[in-house]
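Objective 1b of the project was to move from sequence-level analysis to a structural picture of ligand recognition. The entry below was assembled by the postdoctoral researcher (A.K.) and checked by the PI before modelling. It contains the amino acid sequence of the target and the SMILES of the bound compound, calcium ion.
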Amino acid sequence: MQHARTRLIAASFLASLAPLAHAQLHDGDIILAIDGGRITTNAIDGSTLVSSRVWGTSFGSFDFTDSPGFDTPAVTFPGTSQVGFNVLRALQRWNGSAFPMDASGIPPERLRIRKTGFGDVFTPTTDTFTPGFGISVSSGGEFHQHVGFTLQSPNGAGIYLLELEIWSSIASIETSEPLWIVFNNDLALSERDEAVQWVIDNLITTPCPSDVNGDTDSDILDFLDFIDSFGSCENLPAPCAGSSGIDADFNGDTFVDILDFLDFFDAFGTGCP
Ligand SMILES: [Ca+2]
Ligand SMILES: [Ca+2]
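Corresponding predicted holo structure:
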């Protein structure tokens, strides 16, 4: 899995100078897509969406940042619907080797999340679910938004972890799995990146992307099912499935093409833990 992790880190942190096929997508943003009726979170790696659930960022002046933003491929969500977030637990502070993920890791600092005209919430002081707010998708289905994150007093130097989920106002679209943003306040970037790696290693359960039929094994049946869908759907827009019922848009970029085949083949070759 080291290769996949390396790609995740690279996709999340390296500002690529390569021209992007998705010209409207912003490198470094949290790219929202829908896969199997559920919201997914992704980074963009060149022109490919790569599943990602943790982002690193740093506070700037006034302990504020509006990064990462949220972006989608065109017409991911219905026009005039809303996309929003909930805060799943209190902020956690890095202790130098881990986020404790219990009361001992909750700092006195809270994080304010604000978007003028839409909402203003603070992270809770105990691990309680805290509703966030929604932001409108444009009538044309475009969504590219930045909310403001401000670390509150005593705003100590440290590395802080925010846990969110993303929802749509459309009831048939399932809320995302948890995602995490690691905020650095005045410590070394290397330490922030170590904290991001800790989240990848400890909070994200390792998926098995080539297990397309969902029986927890990656084997020849997955290969046959995927080939069936790919053969039926090549060069067609997603969602698209063959008689096997498998989504042929393996990389989740809303179109079925040779890249899906290559990515599946790569994942299949890598296998699963
Ligand atoms: Ca399988
Ligand atoms: Ca695709």
